[in-house]
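ARCHIVE RECORD
Type: protein–small molecule complex
Small molecule: 5-O-phosphono-beta-D-ribofuranose
Source of inputs: curated submission
Record status: active
Notes field left blank by submitter.
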Amino acid sequence: MPPVAILTGSKSDLPVLEPCVQILQQLGIDHELHVMSAHRSPDTVRTFAAEAEANGFEVIIAAAGMAAHLPGVVASLTMLPVIGVPIASGDHGAAGLDALLSITQMPPGVPVACVAINGAKNAGLLAAAILALKHEAVHDTLQQFRQEQSSA
Ligand code: RP5
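STRUCTURE (tokenized, with ligand):
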């Protein structure tokens, strides 16, 4: 079972998540991508989040636009770390600021990490850094990525 789950609220978000998928592939980190919505498919979200740890996932990336409930709802249902990605959702909403505030303004008790609006690549890199605490191979690959980035 892959160590990273990427969840997103709508198919319309998928293009924004491509850099996340690409960096995880580049780093050799297994992942699964699923579309599920906290308000359109709450039962799916509940089941996936509640079973994620037992199913072998180690980090969850949750992306959503507008009133972005998905990361917080997922975090409420699992002990796994959740990284939120606020999406600037096309012509909808407030250019991602709505989602940014929804994700960062979690009330005390159930935290969600948050990257920049449309910051999918950094979500992948942050997931890698979390995995690197436990997986030496990920640590080494991430270190090599940083070194190459510095010398580019
Ligand atoms: C959110 O609503 C999704 O994450 C998406 O960013 C936004 C709009 O969704 P669609 O109407 O494009 O499906 O839940």
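CURATOR ANNOTATION: The CA atoms of residues 6 and 33 lie 5 Å apart.
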